[in-house]
Please model this.
Amino acid sequence: MAVATLTLEQLCINSIRFLAIDAVEKAKSGHPGLPMGAAPMAFVLWDQFMRFNPKNPKWFNRDRFVLSAGHGCMLQYALMYLAGYDSVTLDEIKNFRQWGSKTPGHPENFETPGIEVTTGPLGQGIANAVGLAIAEAHLAAKFNKPDLTLVDHYTYVILGDGCNMEGISGEACSLAGHLGLGKLIALYDDNHISIDGSTDIAFTEDVSKRFEAYGWHVLHVQDGNTDLEGIARAIAEAKSVTDKPTLIKVTTTIGYGSPNKANTAGVHGAALGEAEIKLTRENLGWTYDPFVVPDEALAHTRKAIERGASYEAEWQETWAQYKTKYPQEAAEFDRLLSGKLPEGWDKVLPTYKPEDKALASRKHSEICLNALAPVLPELIGGSADLTHSNLTELEISGNFQKGAYENRNIHFGVREHGMGAICNGIALHGSGLIPYGATFLVFTDYMRGAIRLSALAECGVIWVMTHDSVALGEDGPTHQPVETIASLRAIPDLTVIRPADGTETSGAYKVAIENARKNRPTLLALSRQGLPNLAGSSIEGVGKGGYTVIGCDGTPDLILIGTGSEVNLCVKAAEQLAAEGKKVRVVSMPSTELFEAQDAAYKESMLPKAVTKRLVVEAGTTFGWHKYAGSEGDILGIDTFGASAPGGVCMEKFGFTVDNVLSRAKALLG
Amino acid sequence: MAVATLTLEQLCINSIRFLAIDAVEKAKSGHPGLPMGAAPMAFVLWDQFMRFNPKNPKWFNRDRFVLSAGHGCMLQYALMYLAGYDSVTLDEIKNFRQWGSKTPGHPENFETPGIEVTTGPLGQGIANAVGLAIAEAHLAAKFNKPDLTLVDHYTYVILGDGCNMEGISGEACSLAGHLGLGKLIALYDDNHISIDGSTDIAFTEDVSKRFEAYGWHVLHVQDGNTDLEGIARAIAEAKSVTDKPTLIKVTTTIGYGSPNKANTAGVHGAALGEAEIKLTRENLGWTYDPFVVPDEALAHTRKAIERGASYEAEWQETWAQYKTKYPQEAAEFDRLLSGKLPEGWDKVLPTYKPEDKALASRKHSEICLNALAPVLPELIGGSADLTHSNLTELEISGNFQKGAYENRNIHFGVREHGMGAICNGIALHGSGLIPYGATFLVFTDYMRGAIRLSALAECGVIWVMTHDSVALGEDGPTHQPVETIASLRAIPDLTVIRPADGTETSGAYKVAIENARKNRPTLLALSRQGLPNLAGSSIEGVGKGGYTVIGCDGTPDLILIGTGSEVNLCVKAAEQLAAEGKKVRVVSMPSTELFEAQDAAYKESMLPKAVTKRLVVEAGTTFGWHKYAGSEGDILGIDTFGASAPGGVCMEKFGFTVDNVLSRAKALLG
Model:
């Protein structure tokens, strides 16, 4: 076909396709197939429906767009360039997948303004989108007034076969259907091809029927390659159904336009190659050089700038009225968006004395959450069906349900991975909400994909993980964490805190809330069993990660380092050793990450290099503790799986008694 | 009702219920609700359908039973006691959830003969069952003859709402539907209650419709509490449909029989309490003391012993005929079941010289898999839709598909967690198959629940994980493992191996296959990029976990410790240091677990305590390496997330160059 025959829409769509083709070719790396096939639906969505302001990517009331099939990121970069985002210039597109570029190999919200969430690991994006839609629904229910609609946006997703095969997407979409999140609209790029070839080899289920079973509104655009009106009609219909999320199955051809590679796995994840690109240009009537976008196409797509300014201006007007009419709510809304915490918020966190009742740290967590709930209305979250074991219910609120989106207790169901990504999405809504998600510590294994992303993608989430050691008892080794805390400590930028008592739990929440406001996740490892309150524990100490709970005169003969429930064993042992004339220091180390963040002088003052007799005590793997035990030190840990028995029996059998700490300590002292 | 009115079936069913009630009450811990509600379906299944031999729990051709809702384990223990398994005596039931008992808090195959798989972490069991059914289908296709059916059993599952909410079950069941595993029959205990309360609060999807969408045959028993005939009819109908797995939704009442707690979350996971137990006894007309089973009930259920002996005898007769008629196949079948490896199997593993081409270790893995495939027909597996990236295809075989179950290449789809549990199930079929599952190393995060269970439940699986560091390049931080290897090393009883070159990859497979035969899983971390073949590498060295690849005369001044792709950097740096007159040893440490298993003398010989100048080099987190670096040593690692750029650029930017190794080494040498 000749270029003259291309309509304006075709020019725009092909601009997307060839920006993707050319960028992948230049990088010799990337995924051209999805952008080529999904360009029409993406163009229609961005051109006719999406409300956003390219010059202010953080404008609050924008529609959120999530490319769940993150490998197709050149689609999103092309859309952003065409729409006029400052972050994605033509130079950045030419620099696709290179060191320091704004166009990394998968969309990264922390690198590229305008990208909402980090995708690539399949299924995360659609689950994040459920979180974005929950955040919108919650804020709308909370702030909108009969006469003024302050919060009102859609969350749009493009997802592929890969996302739909992942369990996490099923979890999140089942919940989205249950919650009736009507402003969530997902376009399913149904291209029948995954990396291994035709989806026929592994994926022949009826996806539409499955989503109907979840309670979604489901539509089908049979020709997603050329039927732009059909796509537009479907999106419009999706918007009209307000009590259910919508899945629009859009049947497309992966690598559309490539004469020899379209509809093959070969076009999924590799550059087309010079020869095939030439043929594709011919086939699509594309006479432009690499990275050249026709003027008329750019002129059209850049209208997004003007549109966006006007959308935002309109909203600013509403906001101005809102501030006048509802100053109290406006102040709260403003505070949330600013990410500021209320003055003195942390004063509600309790501290404890040794004579106070020994409670489980999960119980202290419940006390903290409920103390914070009235002060921090941004706290919203819940458990993966373990609410009364994790103790995460906010008493002042009801359940977040269809028709009750103003509530703050979310019942995630037994869907840990979905919960994780949903919490990430709530955080990345960027509206000041502080989400928390809870399950048993050992089941972080089910949601590790999302926990890792919370750290990478800078999500201010609190992970409330209870039943933190073999001391949980009878449920046995499938439920008893052993290596779990170590495996979480290894994740960069995740702060793991295992508090020793009530005061330390308060300290942990202080850190967690402050972290959340710095867009950093915190994971709390909390006990099932009661923990005595220590004389030496402190909120400030937790902030430093490691600190002295029992000191001694002069240089210690021995340092005992404990975390969580084992600090008390160290304290008891130290008291006895002191009575025997030994100079013993006990360092409570609730968070190695926070300790590492202190300056060298502080660290040396806590763990002097000269004191080589050190005993670490933690009811978990020894893995990772040699750094603090040192070559001459010892570690009392558990390097096997646990066992089913009452918690006290487990602790004793695995050696977590004062006597055993004493005997290991004495062995070191010689 | 009076006891006289109880039918024999009711006596049996109530025996199950009260064994569960009484055991949980005695332990003051456990889950009575599921056994009370699911007892009728379980009784009908075990009484009328299941073919097994209680006196030989390992009889090959038994039907497999999986309690996916593992918290209800007292159901299974009661069934096993009633059926006459030696492992579960009345004393063991009285010892429920106590240290050293055969009746731990969740079913554990490694503790209790007769338990097929370890469940408790929800969703794993149903996914294991898919693996069991795959194993059966494969062996049947391979060994059965038109005149002799050697392999022919069903896999039955009881699963609950929790299992059905978990993404892993969706992944595995979608694949089971695709594969048309007709001998997989799952009974869904539809009791509308999960821990947080009514499933209405989080789980209102249409489960039956979802399974239909997966391609399952779906049935519904409306009154699972009393309609025993309906249950039996449904199971019979399920058996009659041979080309689809069947889900039988059995609507029940959790805690059936308890006047005040039935149909509440309160009965899910806590003892009923003395008063309620009394009322339940009255309500169900149960006049027997705790732990007393009526004689007529026991007499009936113990008929399973005679039935089982006759089932096995019948099969032994078939087997005898088979051995006569098909001696070659019989010998192979026999070898598989014995768990013996063929003589000299490991001779096919290649070794390499420095002049051989530098290939990626994932490529070497492909070479090993394909060298082993003809020698070890028990190798069966595949990738989660990354076959041509993980390089896991066995060239001598086709795809395992409906109608082609004799094949060995399984396409798992983008379903990592499901793949993990399916591989565990194949291993736990106990028929000598060695399953392997593959994805990118970073996505072990998606399947960690199953990897952990592979170690705990003693599954001889090989996890083939490729793209093992930031050197994978452009895909960026979402795809680049940093903390991943450390987090896997922390798992007890999992052998993690990161080979440095071709010879070490062969060594890794030697260990992995031998581990599999000892029911231990092995995880291989393999490179995307080419690795030079080292002069000093060896298969034997890998077996020891750490060994010298470059030595020196006398006591070294410095030891460089490297793994995988970084060993070559160490070698190059050592050569240069040697040229400068330094005495340097390079230890390749492909597996810290294997190294730890060596005796103290060997470990001291490799890493003498006296040599404190040590530099560890690994393109991953430093977490966990201080044990080997020692207090005076140094670690060149990556404690941040990666970045999107070509692999070589990434390695350079993160400091993985010979120059940087040299400079860190010289800083240590002073």
User: Anything to note?
Assistant: The radius of gyration of chain A is 28 Å. Chain A has a mean pLDDT of 97.
